[in-house]
Amino acid sequence: MDYILSERVKTLKPSAIREIFKYAADPSVVSLSAGNPAPEAFPTKAIAEISAKIFEEEPVAALQYGLTEGYPPLKKAVWDFMQNKYGVGGENDDIIITSGAQQVMDLFTKTVCNEGDTVICEAPSFIGSLNSFRSYNCRLCGIPMEKDGMNIEALEKALQQEKNVRFIYIIANFQNPSGATTSWEKRKAIYELAKRYQVMILEDNPYGELRISGENVPCIKSLDTEGLVVYAGTFSKILSPGMRVGYAIAPKPVLQKMVVCKQGEDVHSNQWAQMIAYRFMTEYDFEGHLNSLREIYRKKAAFCMKLLDEYLVPGGISYDPIEGGLFIWCHLPEGARISMNEFCKQAVLNKVCVVPGNAFLTNEAEQCSSFRINFSTPTDEQLEKGIRILGQLAKEVL
Amino acid sequence: MDYILSERVKTLKPSAIREIFKYAADPSVVSLSAGNPAPEAFPTKAIAEISAKIFEEEPVAALQYGLTEGYPPLKKAVWDFMQNKYGVGGENDDIIITSGAQQVMDLFTKTVCNEGDTVICEAPSFIGSLNSFRSYNCRLCGIPMEKDGMNIEALEKALQQEKNVRFIYIIANFQNPSGATTSWEKRKAIYELAKRYQVMILEDNPYGELRISGENVPCIKSLDTEGLVVYAGTFSKILSPGMRVGYAIAPKPVLQKMVVCKQGEDVHSNQWAQMIAYRFMTEYDFEGHLNSLREIYRKKAAFCMKLLDEYLVPGGISYDPIEGGLFIWCHLPEGARISMNEFCKQAVLNKVCVVPGNAFLTNEAEQCSSFRINFSTPTDEQLEKGIRILGQLAKEVL
Hints:
- The structure is a homodimer of 398-residue chains.
- Chain A has 14 helices and 14 strands.
- Chain A is of the alpha/beta class.
- Chain A has two domains: 7-43 and 288-397, Aspartate Aminotransferase, domain 1, CATH 3.90.1150; 64-285, Aspartate Aminotransferase, domain 2 (3-Layer(aba) Sandwich), CATH 3.40.640.10.
- In chain A, the strands form three sheets. Chain A has an eight-stranded mixed β-sheet with strand order 2-9-8-7-6-3-4-5, sandwiched between helices. A four-stranded antiparallel β-sheet of chain A has the order 10-11-14-13.
- In chain A, a hairpin with a 2-residue loop joins strand 4 and strand 5.
- In chain A, helix 6 crosses helix 10 (252-266) and helix 12 packs parallel to helix 14.
- The radius of gyration of chain A is 21 Å and the shape is globular.
- At the A-B interface, helix 1, helix 3, helix 4, helix 6 and helix 7 of A face helix 1, helix 3, helix 4, helix 6 and helix 7 of B.
């Protein structure tokens, strides 16, 4: 059979990170390439307790079909939390529970983009989202990231010049992969530009609760008087990614179509996981848990940055200090003798995996001298070993 | 904001059934309109036990990120089961675990259909799948259903005349909504036509294990020497729909693209649910459980058909006897004084919900004198009450 594939999937490839994971699966390789929460960050005891209670008290509710929009008590709990804590969600908005925040990217793109329409993204940005946009044959337009967010001039120029721009995709807190947090001034500027050019904003905030230093910056969605912003949230980094529970808070006309798309995609999200998330938020000390997570990641990030100072910086590799999230963005020096891609390959040969920065670009063929390391998944021992090896390599080959 | 929606979602509506569910939510209304498994069909005790064991033995595996392709032990268990029991899955095939079989419809359509391509469906057919195809702007071409499956002449004519046919969608066992089972002769004829015209087949088999009488008919996929068939299976009707665990067994070149699409859609399916399904299949008496389900539905179906004979047939309404599944397809007599749609509205006013048959057509505006009733969700008392009311109504208005 000569299989006929749709135009949209013909050029779609598994993410470059997945290729790297193949090496990372080798137990002798230290993987700094993942994005998994630290295993010690899971409240396993609480989840086991809740699960037992659910099967004692309401097993059929956990096993029967649910509503496409999501488990109503969880919808309300998340809505109240986001409303009270962050001012997210107005009277023209509604909420949908999704199978992870990844599904928000998918449903929103499906709802507003025709093939060939343009999505403006930070460059670099999260591969999973870029691939979701690509899977609807969207054109990606990357705006260079600076330490305080997108370059606003480049964003305005893109809004002026690009055709059929449907939305601006932004991870405003501790961005993946750059670690950058968009400043309050830039958040306001981006919202004003969206308003002026009448394009929507997809604000993806998976790491917002993982701030380890500095002051919280309000969400763009909290500015949204015009109904321009779709906010994507998730339990993946604060409870469990394996449960696949995320959500969108979005203007009703858009959200209603996302619900219809979700109906055709997976009917509804896993019912048990929604009930776990609901009870964990309302019957346990949710804020206390978030504090304990921040404590775990504060220590791990500080340890990682200390190692980078000790081993990588003397070898000529710089990095951008972070205030939260799970990733640190490292840079080869100007005039390095080998390319970043070559450096990452050499690292694998020396049994350390990092992610080459060009994997995160809208055009992977572009030059890039940065790579991403993750500090949440490895143990302290692995982190120390991996960064020490990278440091030795830097001294030898750069 | 003047929201710009994609062409594909502009005409997409929530399924007609959902509108009916609004009435069905009224506790004074007897709902014969759902498609939920009977609550007593859930092995709640076993699932509670397995869940407790998972949290005792391997909590992190249940909570951490998983693989897009699915939990490897479950993939193997399902593969072996389908291979050994039904001869499904050859050396050029592979398996992906999905978020319910609904996601198979979505991922496969996304992989092989450009907007405007044609999907050939049984008419009537399952609304959820039709809406999934519609959400990619596919053209639907309905082939009239007969008691033993699609009209083969009409199918061949469609294959000759329609442009860009990508696949034939078929529910061969106890079809939703017609209850019809495609005969072995027709299965072979459909496969031969697919081969001759080089189009694929999407074989959706949610009810296959729910045979209550007659002999099993082999799956079309078991004939698939040419790599033409994508087989969609699910745990929704045999374990739990709320868990959202389905799967596809499909030719590798197609399956690989479906995996990439799934990565962008929800990364992977709920990990806990996959582990539950795996342990239930391998550590419990899975075949014994399937037998007990068949026993439950055998009794319920027989009771329902007895009620139909007693109350509806005398009022002029006929039905197609079934050998399995969850639905019975009923027909208003020729020359009825009111339309089927009017009859269903009157039924709601009399506090009984059924699904008007035109909801299942590729063109909902077409004439249809049939409606669907479900016997798995209501209790025996509800079933008796509902069908008695329908019978009284039939006598009064037809």
